[in-house]
Design brief:
The chain is an alpha+beta fold. It folds into 2 domains: 35 residues; 226 residues, no CATH class. Helices cover 24% and strands 43% of the residues. Strands 1, 2, 5, 8, 9 and 10 form a 6-stranded antiparallel sheet that branches. A two-stranded antiparallel ribbon has the order 3-7. It has a two-stranded antiparallel sheet with strand order 4-6. A hairpin with a 2-residue loop joins strand 8 and strand 9. The longest helix has 33 residues. InterPro entries: YfkD.
Amino acid sequence: MNRRKIWQIALIVFVITLISPVNSFGADKKKAKDDFKVPSHALNISKENTFPNSTEDQEIVEPSKATKGLINEVDVPIENPDLIKMLNETTVKPSFLAIGYRGMIYLGRWPINYKSSETTVNWEYQQINENELNNMGGDSTQKINYIQKQQTEVEGALTNKITKPDDIKKMMLLKAKEKADLPLSYKTVIGQNTKKDNSYAVPTEKIGTLKAYAPAVSEKGQVTFGEVYIKLKGNKKSIVVKNVTKQGIGAWIPIQDYVSFTFNLK
């Protein structure tokens, strides 16, 4: 094999090496997007729902300039909105004349941040309704439609006990919304007599059963806890986080105003 051939092969291998990671990243990105794609058997009922659900818009707390300067110097990322809000409202200002002064102000043990490791959708999280049509003695094909028999409330929750659950639920909801472009809320209600135009054919001598489910997102990850202090040294102020621990946590977060269906004949 001559030298020119060797250079050509080496160039081809180099180009393939460069392209492959890009293609892999693109495939992973598409797969992640497809994971949260609404399937054909799940329908939006926001217009038909006889119970008007209020959207759960999470308050995005932006750190003030002073707070941002403090948390940027901490090794542990501080993302808890309630903790950031407290730091924004903290008015401790060391005196310029406090030469040699030292002090520590304890703010408590807080969930500092939440890191998501897995976000998936269960489109049949909780059964909420069942309609049945008996066409055993009929002489033609009949149609069955979804009609909600009674008002049903579906609530999400953390999967295990943990300190400061409300703070953690907020952080988990924010992370889940970043991944899934879906109307997530820890509570959704499907009102009585909610209807949808989707119909299913029930032939003669058959019984058709249409079951309806409320979908939900399964969010799993890890919470970082730590004892938070404001450290005063002379005329300077800083944040110190001590005794850092981590704990695994999961949550079910319902998808608001969506219903998925399964239809069976017997």
